[in-house]
Design goal:
Layout: E1 4-5, E2 12-16, E3 20-25, H1 28-39, H2 41-49, E4 75-78, H3 91-110, E5 113-115, E6 123-126, E7 129-132, E8 138-140, H4 151-168, H5 172-178, H6 185-189, H7 200-217, H8 232-252, H9 275-292, E9 296-300, H10 306-313, E10 317-322, H11 325-338, E11 342-346, H12 366-370, E12 376-379, H13 383-389, H14 394-403, E13 408-414, H15 419-425, H16 437-444, E14 448-457, E15 460-467
Parallel strand pairs: 9-10, 9-12, 10-11, 12-13
Antiparallel strand pairs: 1-2, 2-3, 3-4, 5-8, 6-7, 13-15, 14-15
Helix pairs in contact: 3-4, 3-8, 4-7, 13-15
């Protein structure tokens, strides 16, 4: 994965290197402010808890590192194993990022600072743990200031998407793919009908702001709230009350499983294997993990993440993805509960996240981020979905797996006679009469060496592949 550089913050920028993140400042006052926050008891506590990105001691740099030759040493941060973004998260992940943002705002207030940004793009997940990574978002607070500047941004990028998810079942990743800034009150208010008009969250954050906006638009001058300072004790009370309200609203918006499951949420309870067949599959994967000892594992089409969890329990950092947001949400919750180094994302492999932002370079596309990043890829029980449902040609599929640059791939072939394959065919069986094990192995051989194979059942075969 190539390094890239940020550029939107006028106070400085970061360069993301393969080994660490280098933060440079264009304003010396901003740098002294950020370093002062990190040195404060609140900053130290946040770093210690893992909720704020840590600092890297320059003394740990290699003797020949070019950074040592710079007149002023920049601020250094550890590199999060895999960057992900709000348009790849489940609802519970966005909710966790929102709670973290409010907690940091409260901690900043306690230390005499203010959090000036409230964007989900300031948060990355280290495994299943949210970490605030934008150190430049902290500034010294003016005594008597009772306005939290990024409140509108927080509502648009956190509260309103969570309200839309709760009220209408909107999927978080789709909202942010449509608009990286989140969801506006006007857009959400336009969908409110019938009894939804009695929903307190919709009234407070969508209907009322739309009404006030219409009133303000009729005035000849732009309406602005007075920002005159208050006595400090009163200002502190106003801010703390507001943060308490936000915490209470977030608690009420905590995502919960829908009454009706998604298309694949019940797959783990209805696997297409007899118990002894599934045990055979587990043994094969476990054997590969023990032989390979991968540091980083990619679980493609993970569903409930059973095999990705096996790798995580063996000490690997795991990125697992699936197109079903509900199963990803469940997997994230279980990873948090079990404290696993596993990051689940909502990704449709046939339509992965593109490059985003200015010139598509601010946030690299998903395929760019995964290329060359993993030692082992698990490609289990998703062959037939890509070949049949998405009509991906077999050579293209093999070429994609090779492009990951993993040392090894565990590949599961599913034959057209398999019941799950037949379910997807929907009368198109004639298109796949040629597809058998010999055809699959001929497609694999130019890019991989078949190190091992195991028939799991009559219609499914596992392969351990080594990249040529």
């Amino acid at each position: 994965m190539n390094a890239w550089r940020s550029f939107r913050d006028p106070s400085g920028w970061v360069e993301v290197r393969p080994d660490l993140v280098v933060r440079r400042f264009s304003d010396p006052d901003t740098e002294s402010t950020i370093r002062a926050f990190y040195a404060s008891p609140a900053g130290c506590a946040l770093v210690e808890s893992g909720r704020l990105i840590a600092l890297v001691d320059p003394a740990t740099l290699a003797p020949d590192d070019p950074l040592r030759a710079e007149p002023t040493m920049p601020m250094l941060h550890p590199r999060i194993a895999f960057p992900s973004y709000a348009y790849e998260w489940s609802a519970s992940m966005l909710h966790a990022a929102a709670v973290l943002t409010v907690d940091l705002a409260i901690a900043s207030l306690d230390a005499g600072f203010e959090l000036k940004d409230a964007s989900p793009f300031n948060v990355l997940f280290d495994g299943s743990t949210p970490v605030f990574i934008d150190a430049a978002s902290f500034e010294r607070r003016t005594p008597g200031r009772w306005i939290w500047s990024p409140l509108a941004q927080f509502e648009k990028s956190f509260l309103l998407p969570l309200i839309a998810h709760r009220a209408y079942g909107d999927e978080i990743h789709r909202l942010f793919l449509a608009d990286a800034a989140g969801l506006s009150p006007e857009t959400l208010a336009s969908r409110v009908r019938g009894m939804d008009r009695l929903n307190p969250a919709l009234i407070r954050h969508a209907l009322l702001p739309r009404l006030l906006g219409r009133i303000a638009s009729r005035k000849s001058t732009v309406y602005t709230t007075s920002r005159k300072p208050m006595p400090e004790a009163q200002a502190q009370f106003v801010l703390r009350s507001m943060f308490t309200r936000l915490k209470r609203e977030l608690a009420a918006l905590a995502p919960r499983p829908p009454a009706r499951g998604s298309a694949w949420s019940g797959y783990a309870d209805d696997r297409p294997y007899a118990p002894e067949e599934f045990a055979r599959k587990e043994r094969f994967v476990q054997c590969v993990l023990e032989q390979s000892r991968p540091g980083r594992v990619l679980d493609i089409g993970c569903n409930d993440g059973h095999f990705g969890k096996m790798a995580a329990r063996d000490g690997a950092q795991v990125l697992a993805f699936d197109l079903d947001a509900q199963v990803v949400d469940t997997l994230w919750k279980s990873s948090v509960r079990d404290k696993l180094p596993l990051l689940p994302l909502v990704i449709d492999l046939s339509r992965p996240s593109p490059g985003e932002g200015w010139r598509n370079r601010e946030r690299p596309g998903f395929l760019d981020r995964i290329q060359g990043h993993f030692d082992l890829a698990l490609f289990l029980a998703c062959f037939h979905h890509l070949v049949v449902t998405d009509r991906i040609p077999l050579p293209e599929l093999v070429d994609f797996l090779a492009s990951l640059e993993c040392r090894e791939v565990v590949f599961e072939y599913v034959a057209p006679a398999d019941p799950m394959f037949q379910t997807l065919l929907r009368g198109r069986g004639a298109l796949f009469q040629w597809l058998n094990e010999d055809a699959v192995e001929r497609a694999i051989e130019p890019r991989f060496r078949i190190r091992d194979r195991e028939p799991v059942k009559t219609t499914r075969t596992l392969y351990a592949l080594e990249r040529r």
